[in-house]
Amino acid sequence: MNLQGIVTRFLEPNTDTDVIIPARFLKRTALDQFEPYAFFEKRYSGNTVCEPTLEDKDYVFHKTEFNANCSLNHPNCGEATFLLTWFNFGCGSSREHAVYALKNYRVIIGSAPEGKSPFADIFRDNCRQNLIWTPVISETDFKRLNQYLDQKLAQAPVTLSLDTSGDRLSSSDGEFSCSYSIPEHHRSYLLAGLDAFQKAKFEIQTHLKKIETWEKTNELLLSRSPNSSLK
Known about the structure:
Elements: E1 2-10, H1 17-20, H2 40-43, E2 49-53, E3 58-63, E4 82-85, H3 97-100, E5 107-109, H4 121-129, H5 139-152, E6 159-163, E7 168-171, E8 177-179, H6 184-192, H7 196-217, H8 219-223
Parallel strand pairs: 1-4, 4-5
Antiparallel strand pairs: 1-6, 2-3, 6-7, 7-8
């Protein structure tokens, strides 16, 4: 299976979850539609007005002005579903809302220099549970990819492709390609296509079916059980 999408970048190291989703937005009662508030202090200028409403128990934009210097607002990165990040992305608080705010990205690419971690562990696992791929590429390939994007994004959007079984990340024009790594238990979970709730429900249903099958094939044994009168 291949995942394809336009790529954008956020390359600040040690990006903590409060940068991804500022704490004030955690007061929202809904657990969806956090994407407009992602990287709020980076994406929007100081002229943006976004205020809470008691009636809707939500935050409403009254005036929106994007920060032209933020890489996420690059004119050729609209509708991006791939996000390239730098080391220790998602550190700080373990708030799951940070991942909710990034659910428009199907793939978040990580990398790090030697001795550093591409992702905070809890953040990466929260991504897995919300079906977001977190492939890791080497520092050398990270630099190559950035050089490629510097050249190509000046002309047009760039589409990347993630081969989920072949461990390759490549550009649609074939000019960039590299290997990536991801824990095998992440891969199997993501390929199953079930989020945490769906997976738990599926496992419970599977175990119930096994119990039902066992009971049917062991009716005689159960009838002789001291507790059979309780059934």
